[in-house]
Amino acid sequence: MSSVLRSYKGIFPTVGERVYLDPSSVLVGDITLGDDASIWPLVAARGDVNHIRIGQRSNIQDGSVLHVTHKNKENPEGYPLLIGDDVTVGHKVMLHGCTIGNKVLVGMGAIVLDGAIIEDEVMVGAGSLVPPGKRLESGFLYVGSPVKQARPLKEAERAFLQKSSDNYVVTKNEYIAELEG
Predict the structure, then answer these.
(1) Fewest C-beta in 10 Å: which of 29, 90, 161, 178?
(2) Per-residue pLDDT tens for 21-50?
(3) InterPro entries this protein is in (predicted)?
(4) Per-domain boundaries in the chain
(5) If DSSP codes are grouped into helix, strand and coil, which group holds residue 3?
(6) 5-180 domain in CATH 3.40.50.300?
(7) Which long-range contacts (CB under 8 A, 24 or more apart) does 177-180 make?
């Protein structure tokens, strides 16, 4: 895992308990992963000019890119990347300096830009674009480019948000068990 976790200016990522890091992923700098999180093949995460926080039981799927926005005169705090608990980030997603609440699903190929806020219990459809500064209200499905509120989530969809996270915890545990032999 030493090649997966890399320092930037002497700061290494911090990893919680029972975390799975695929050997092909790269995490650099000020990144914290909560317990039972999973990082899948070819994920690139750079906590270099700001920080990244990934919550418990969240999964970042294959080919996703996670980055932040630097601090500057116009925006003294910049935009860190904050990902809550039980979040499923689909394959090939781009998250840049945004905030994602708990029990969120970000569909494959979606892009979420600086200062965007996704509240708890939201589904973002595959291929959607969440523009800078946009807030997605809890309890809804959002789709499109740019993203628009499509409809309230059905009860089965709300339940799926937790189920998706739970399924990835089971899968990452299987991967860890195989690695431990």
Answers:
(1) 178
(2) 999 999 999 999 999 999 999 999 999 999
(3) Hexapep, LbH_gamma_CA-like, Transf_Hexapept/Carb_Anhydrase, Trimer_LpxA-like_sf
(4) 5-180
(5) coil
(6) no
(7) none
